[in-house]
Amino acid sequence: MSERCRKREGKLEGEIAKEKQILIRLLDKKFGLNSAARDKILKADNKKKLDRAIDLLLDAKTIDEVLRPLD
Length: 71
Description:
Organism: marine sediment metagenome
Order of helices and strands: HHHH
Helix content: over 70%
Strand content: under 5%
Protein name: DUF4351 domain-containing protein
Largest sheet: none
């Protein structure tokens, strides 16, 4: 793997980790966060799905609505 690919992969991993932190923080503030929901977020590794979950957060009535894209 080239240095450029490693850097790109590292950057993506950092972005995913940050999105997980943001989603956990906001869900905990809005709904309260149980361990199953936290684990589901921490296991997520798809940036687009995490982005979608964050987008749903503002209008969601339940935590399940937000986490559905992570299934």
